[in-house]
Amino acid sequence: MAEYSAFSLLKNALNGNRDWKQAWRKPDPKPSYEVIVVGGGGHGLATAYYLAREHGIANVAVLEKGWLGSGNVGRNTTAVRSNYLLPQNSRFYEHSMKLWENLSHELNYNVMFSQRGCLNLAHTPGQLDDYARRGNAMRHEGIDAELMTPAQIERLVPGLDMSASARFPIIGGLMQRRAGTARHDAVAWGYARAADRRGVDIIENCEVTGFLRDGDRVVGVTTTRGEIRASKVAVAVAGHTGHVMKLAGIERLPIESHVLQAFVSESLKPFLHTVITFGMGHFYASQSDKGGLIYGGDLDGYNSYAQRGSLPVMEDVMSEMLALFPSLARVRVLRSWGGVCDMSMDGSPIITTGPLPGMYLNAGWCYGGFKATPASGWCFAHTIARDEPHEFNAAFTLDRFHRGILIDDKGQGSTPRLH
Ligand SMILES: Cc1cc2nc3c(=O)[nH]c(=O)nc-3n(C[C@H](O)[C@H](O)[C@H](O)COP(=O)(O)OP(=O)(O)OC[C@H]3O[C@@H](n4cnc5c(N)ncnc54)[C@H](O)[C@@H]3O)c2cc1C
Q: Mind listing the GO molecular function terms for this protein (predicted)?
């Protein structure tokens, strides 16, 4: 398959763009593979790519029930950061950040990774103390973090209500400058193309409907396109984890599925040059290269598999935006949609062998799985290939919930919708 380059762009432009090849093949499923990855989201595709690249395992099928990008990988608000407090999370997410920094080059696909920074706004002295503590913990791990003054914030983000009479006065913030955004569906397409080039079969419109068992051991799957056998079956279906694991007889998991909405405004002149988060509620925003604001807030708050949300949360998100940027009151919302998030009980993910022999599980991504995509695929591939976790995902076990060793970065307790 041809390399994407300035030269190939020019050649195809002169050629009427007739010679572009399909980015990945459309193979029929083979009767068996070494590894089956269930779920063609960002995590499933990245896993297949790193299995082939890092471990030489290319006899892999990724089974996706819809089309690539139909899940949360194509529905998120694209924020990428590694500003965590606890070392288990900060080491894992910083590994992801380092993979992001070279991803376009590595995949030969422009994922439009833009390190425009991520600023968490603080509105109370207690919150600022908390951010200072998190920033210090990050720096201790070698991750960039800066505490910002109101004057610095005012210069960086024009339009923010910085007055003392603001509904929630801003008294400082925590900035990670290496954080930013990426083009979400390009990440799916880039991993898909790169995995396909290494021999991985990506099979769309192929829903897994059950698991083949030999005693306890999982030895393959039944699908809408027939039975497929495999030595190892890895599940990476994000919001559908509960549903898919039930097909294997696993009835209870420390995960709830919730709807999370995203919104896009009409195009505005560039004014928001960083990702920004509100400290007194749940609101985050960035501005796309086309000028639209991309923003979101809280979960809808009830369990659901629907990919659309409800009006009260929409109203809540808009009111939080206006508390920060009163001048946006007349901006029109162009689009909104929802995605199904796999909320774990402690807000941290699960990347593990099991829970059945021959099976591997990747889940619990909550609000934040997009930024994890490279490290999640990298660590999951390691776990599948070697039957043991990498040090970066060693803590992300399933039995930590049973043993009470939670990784609760926000200190919210075991209420999944709060993470
Ligand atoms: C509105 C919204 C905003 C978000 N914003 C951010 C953000 O700014 N930053 C961030 O880091 N994260 C964000 N996230 C979270 C992030 O998008 C997810 O955590 C992450 O994409 C989940 O991993 P994935 O890409 O593999 O999931 P998905 O893309 O959902 O992949 C799972 C795939 O499994 C497939 N599947 C399900 N069941 C089956 C089956 N039976 N057989 C075969 N295939 C099946 C699905 O069709 C789907 O394609 C956001 C999420 C939402 C919804």
A: nucleotide binding; sarcosine oxidase activity
